Hints:
- By secondary structure, this protein is of the alpha+beta class.
- It has one domain (about 30-145): Trna Endonuclease, Chain: A, domain 1 (3-Layer(aba) Sandwich), CATH 3.40.1350.10.
- The protein is built from 3 helices and 8 strands.
- It starts with 5 loop residues before the first strand and ends with a helix.
- The model is unreliable at about 1-25 (pLDDT under 50).
Amino acid sequence: MDKPKLLAVSRRPLRPADASGNECDRGGTPRELERKFRARLDRALKREQAAGLNILKLSLSDTFAKGYPDWLLFGSGFCVAAEIKRVGENPRPIQKQMLDRFARVGTSVGVIRPCGPSEYLFEWESWQTHERSVYRSFGEWFGAL
């Protein structure tokens, strides 16, 4: 079995790389891991939009008061309010209240988290049913809504 390649990252210890040479998500502070996961989601969504997926994303947490979902996603006939959380982390009480408000008006509401196997992009936990599903792409996820 080959040893993992190591990548130099400025002012940080060397971290293992996966088979494609990308830095693994193991290691780092929880905040760093969440930032990497958000960046990975953004890149994936932009790739799928460029390939023809008709989705509009609004990042509400940067614009509005505390408690609003991180993302509102709009597509043909649906709207999704999503909180992006680390594994094992849940929405804060004010975020729960806001997710409940969105759910009452018929919006699909849930939490996006990273998931284990690297072939999956994210895990979606429905706020209404508490069912969890993993998806390889946003297109696959939106097709299931």
